[in-house]
Task: inverse folding
């Protein structure tokens, strides 16, 4: 009977806890669904776990504050601060280096952001959690599509087939920059031929030289076998 009595006396708190954790599960799932949809290393379940865990941390902080603040000096924000700084270990696991390219930074940032959403839900700041979730989702989805269209329309992509050589990427990058080209991104694409690598250079618009002149300058490098522009 004492269990029923104890639960009844704390029913309001536990009802609030269930609502907060369920809300954290939903909001984290929304962000995780977008990451899962684009096949990122941290997807649906990972974002839910991060958000729910962060919410539980803040609920625990609130519980400690109300039940023990009269006995000891407690800071309800202390545990939440540890979540914000500690989530970096999980974000680092999503960052992958492929050749000369680095991927996963956006997913790492989304994990950090969703942990903040969980903290907001856990402390009962529902308005901030909903608004932040909307902005995060729009940034990951809509902003990415808009950015992709802008890059396709304005940027120039050059594919360079060259021999595998130490410092070759730096040499080719220097040639492009000397011709007035500004590099946005450089990607390494594996080649089926032994001793050869394929590099993809993404150039910003507004180059001083034409694409043909840049290609000609790159071909002057003795190790380059083929250069062409993505159509």
Result:
């Amino acid at each position: 009977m004492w269990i029923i009595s104890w639960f009844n006396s704390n029913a309001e708190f536990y009802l609030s806890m269930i609502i907060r954790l369920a809300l954290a599960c939903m909001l984290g799932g929304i962000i995780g669904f977008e990451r899962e949809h684009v096949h990122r290393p941290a997807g649906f379940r990972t974002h839910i776990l991060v958000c729910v865990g962060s919410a539980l941390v803040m609920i625990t902080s609130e519980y400690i504050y109300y039940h023990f603040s009269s006995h000891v000096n407690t800071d309800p924000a202390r545990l939440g601060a540890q979540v914000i700084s500690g989530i970096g270990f999980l974000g680092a696991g999503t960052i992958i280096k492929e050749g000369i390219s680095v991927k996963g930074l956006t997913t790492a940032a989304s994990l950090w952001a969703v942990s903040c959403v969980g903290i907001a839900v856990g402390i009962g700041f529902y308005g901030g959690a909903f608004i932040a979730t909307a902005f995060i989702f729009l940034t990951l989805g809509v902003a990415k599509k808009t950015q992709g269209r802008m890059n396709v329309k304005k940027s120039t992509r050059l594919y360079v087939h060259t021999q595998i050589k130490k410092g070759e990427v730096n040499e080719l990058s220097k040639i492009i920059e000397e011709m007035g080209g500004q590099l946005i991104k450089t990607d390494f694409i594996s080649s089926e031929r032994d001793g050869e690598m394929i590099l993809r250079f993404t150039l910003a618009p507004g180059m001083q030289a034409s694409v043909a002149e840049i290609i000609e300058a790159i071909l002057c490098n003795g190790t380059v076998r083929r250069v062409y522009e993505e159509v």
User: Anything to note?
Assistant: The beta strands are 96-98, 101-103, 156-163, 183-190, 196-203, 224-229. The radius of gyration is 25 Å. The chain has two domains: 2-149, 155-229.
